[in-house]
Amino acid sequence: MGFLTGGITYVVPFLVVLTVLVFVHELGHYLVARWNKVRIETFSIGFGPELFGWTDRVGTRWKVSAVPLGGYVKMFGDTDPASMGASEQIERMSDEEKAVSFHHKRLMQRVAVVVAGPAANFVFTVVALAVLFATIGQPFTPPQVGKVEAGSAAAAGGLKPGDTIVRIDGGAVHRFEDIQQAVRLDDGRPLAITVQRDSKELTLSITPRVTTVTDRFGYQHRFPLLGIERQGVNYVRRNPVDAMWRAGQETGNLVSGTLTAVWQMIIGARPADEIGGPLRIAQMSGEVAQGGVVALIWFMAVLSVNLGLINLFPIPVLDGGHLLFYFAEAIRGRPLGARAQEYGFRLGLAVVLTLMVFATWNDLVHIGFLRFLKGFGT
Question: Could you say which of 53, 66, 153, 157 would form a disulfide bridge with 209 (CB–CB 3.0 to 4.6 Å)?
Fold first, then answer.
């Protein structure tokens, strides 16, 4: 139960990471809305009662609220943080009010404002990784096998120390980190691994084995593993232009890997217990914070990509839900009726709450809280 006994170790990094990512996301909405001359009433980090804040010269209330699990930008004409507008209130606006109302902007202006939040998360990931690659360096280890664990999938499949892996399932491998990503996304099928050995290429069929790994806090994780080790970790510093280019590639890999993992969960090829909520994010924040700046930046980059992608899912209440309504508006030539939007948001809220409950349950199981309660009761 290290998570419960080391509260400060976890909570402080969690709040810092989440605050930064939420601020970036909401700042994307804010900047594009202001660019389109939308009046912003509130910029909030967190939900619920205000803890502290200030009002700027244009009337926007910037505040930090009591529940630090998200944030919102409330625009003029919204009736709630989800950017719902009351049709009667919108219709009664004066011409001056309509000029600064989000709901009176052209369709593509509203689309741009909504897309700007997730886009800001992707931009943050690229910039953060680019700075990392240009200063400390990009992890870049040659894809050469340093050690093969006895009894592992690699040993059974014929991999040997000194082999250089050049392709996996036809995809080129440039560094050891590419191998790790390909193996982590395996869904139980054999991988066609092409290696270079003694100036010759040969292809081996190897199925990674799901292995239980215990971290330094005593928590168990299940991963598909080959059972090989690299010869060491190298960091290669890039010039600013190359760093930005490679950071963009890395961000694309993160997006692709995340979507692949989500699809594997949907079709049942990957266990749904990998879905984590705020407790697991807090635990991971504490762990990576102890691992240093490099680990923390990588974690924030991964989390930022996930935040951007999740918000693009076509679920009402999320940004993707707004885009879904705007798509329907583009086809119909007019917005959906108020009742249809209301039912859509109710359904979306139910889906989001269900996912939150499921993720929190996974978190409690993951950190051993249920075992703790069971032991406490006996």
Answer: 153
CATH fold for domain 141-233:
Pdz3 Domain (2.30.42)
Q: What percent of the chain has pLDDT over 70?
A: 77
- CA gap 22, 121 in Å, rounded: 9
Cα(184)–Cα(362) distance, rounded to whole angstroms?
20
pLDDT in tens, 125-168: 999 999 999 998 888 788 888 888 888 888 888 888 888 889 98
The residue count of the chain comes to 378
Residue with tokens 């996974």: 362
Q: Please write down the long-range contacts of 2-5, taking CB distance under 8 Å and 24 or more positions apart.
A: 2/217, 2/218, 2/219, 3/217, 3/279, 3/282, 3/283, 3/286, 3/367, 4/367, 4/369, 4/372
- Rounded to two decimals, the pTM is 0.75
Task: Give the residue numbers marked as catalytic.
Answer: 26
Cα separation, 180 vs 166, whole angstroms: 13
The domain segmentation of the chain, as residue ranges, is: 2-36+105-135+304-377, 141-233
- CA torsion angle 279 310 223 170 (round to 10): -160
Q: In 3D, which of 52, 107, 50, 47 has the Cα closest to residue 73?
A: 47
Confidence of residue 377 (pLDDT cuts 50, 70, 90): very low
